Amino acid sequence: MKRHISVRPDSVLAMTEASYLRATRTFYDAVAVDYAERFRTDLDAKPVDRAMLAAFVELVRADGAGPVVDLGCGPGRVTAHLHSLGLDVFGVDLSPAMVAIARQAHPGLRFEEGSMTALDLADGALGGVVAWYSIIHTPPERLPEVFTEFHRVLAPGGHLLLAFQIGDEPLHLAQPFGHPVSLDFRRSSPDRIAELLCQAGFALSSRLLREPDENESTSKVPQAYLLARKPRKP
Fold it and tell me: What's this model's pTM, rounded to 2 decimal places?
């Protein structure tokens, strides 16, 4: 039987949430329909991405661990892919519009509104956390608290998979698909992210770097994937 895990609705935090969270929600609410259509089959042409997700699934399943959350799930394509590989997985996203699209596209799966900075989950509730290009809107100085939250909700031995763009300067994307919104897409160094993960109590297990492919028209920079684990013992 699948366990039900509640996620604090982001509206509860509306009075105190950081401005970057509000900006991210506004951006993705505006572009949700176009974004979902543009990236609907994105994984089909990315065998390296699928391989990293498959490796994560194998690690989680080998441990017989609990449920997995896809944080920043957007329209749910990665959530659905993980489910197709056998995981008990649910998605969380800041954007109500994205969550609505995910629920419509994947009615058999669970999607909730929420922020990865404040998950209403018990300590050690999860067997895995995926943040697939969803830390890229978090200011660098806020990443330690985000990774501490990931560590908190993972059970001992639980696995974390991150994907992000490599670089020193953010990409400022304005008026995507003709919508009057803009947002910064923050890039980072794999070494820096690995260092922050270790500081949060994780043990890094794997890292993979790949070059941009021809379809990544707005982000011609290398991509990084990091697998980490919460140690079974402190």
Answer: 0.88
